[in-house]
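Run log, item B.
One chain of 476 residues. Sequence copied directly from the ordering sheet:
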Amino acid sequence: MEIEIKFKSVAWRWALNVLLIMFLIIIAVEIILCVFIHSYYISQTKTAAEEYASSFITPISNCLPENYETTARDYCEEFAYKDKLEIQVLDPNGHLLISTTGFSHEPSSMPDFQSALSSTSDGYFSGKSSVGESILCKTELLYSGDELFGAVRWIVSLEKVNKQIFWTCLFAVLLGAAVLTILFITGMYFIRSIVRPIRDVSSVARKIALGDFDQRIELKANNEIGELCDSINYMASELKSAENLKNDFISSVSHELRTPLTAIRGWAETAKMSIGYDEETVNKGLDVVLKESERLHSLVEELLDFSRMQSGRLSMNFEKFDLAIILAEAADMYKELAKKQKVELVYVPPIDSIYCNGDPNRIKQVFINAIDNALKYNQPGGQILIEQHIEDGCVQISISDTGVGIAEKDLDRVKEKFYKANKQVRGSGIGLAVADEIIKQHNGLILIDSTEGVGTTVTIVLPICENIPEGENNEQ
């Protein structure tokens, strides 16, 4: 049998959901960062150029129109920031008069001058020069009153600035790529630290599901995965224990059924052959058949009760009854058998009647189970003592024996289904589990105290009702 599990890889889901989202976020951040870097460097360039140019423009703007060209030439020769930017002096029509570079050729186009004249912008222009160089320029118009008498144009190269912007943006992109790579590597490591154990868990779980309860997950981790592995290992141990108990139960029940069936068949054949010849053998055979049939009936009823208990259908017919009468009847059932096994059975009746609310037949079944166990695990010359007393609104029925006792390691498990502390003695291992369930449904307790080699005391605690007058009890 093969079990196939189809699922989408956790790593794939993580890459699709988390890594893709992180990639898009980093791309968006990179774009915003590059735009910011470009704006920052251009802004800084503008500020520096304005500052350098102001040392030229301020005195020129204050000169008289008729001295404009002469003054401009003087300042062009003395301009201290020729290595930072170029200053061009223009007439009112935009023709070049002089430049700080010493060249007098006129630019092919001056969009910044045109925009300054039209007042449609702040007079800045960023683009390519006539020789293909990236530049940033601006034109400042000079007025005397309302009359335009000239203009000063500064030009700064953006080649170095653009290189700086490029390398800075490249560094930011590489940093983002590094972050994404680190995120991917650490993420895959983290995912694998989850996926690999889960695959191991899945593999072991499938083997356990196929019945191999010896499988264990060899993973020690101080996290949720480790707790899951420990839980599955514990589950496998419990399943193995339950499987062993089930097998022991089947073996025990098979033996319990086979023994009376063998006796019934053997004595039935013997009695049949003895009809008309040996009436004593016939009668003895029929007695054995009846006795073993009753034993089979009890075992089948016990199995049916266990089945009802497992499915929650263990029915109870509650009524008020005299507990002392039920206990006395259960004790009387085993007096003759105890004598045959040379075990003294002592029943100490109560002084007064003790009334409880419950199912008398089920309570009697519990008493029979406890007395039967006390007799099974006793030895010739031993004793069984049955007594009862009232304490704190409850009746405590104690059934003590001087039998083999129960080992301390088994004491906490004797009420578990299928569990048998002593596999050498007959029994299915479910009688005490059924008895415990019956007593629980009566709001009572079964307590077991035992010392190996000394004996066992089973104490059944049940709540009592107020004593019912004899007349009312008879009516019920």
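Observations after the first pass:
- The CA atoms of residues 38 and 165 lie 6 Å apart.
- The radius of gyration is 52 Å.
Flagged for discussion on Thursday.
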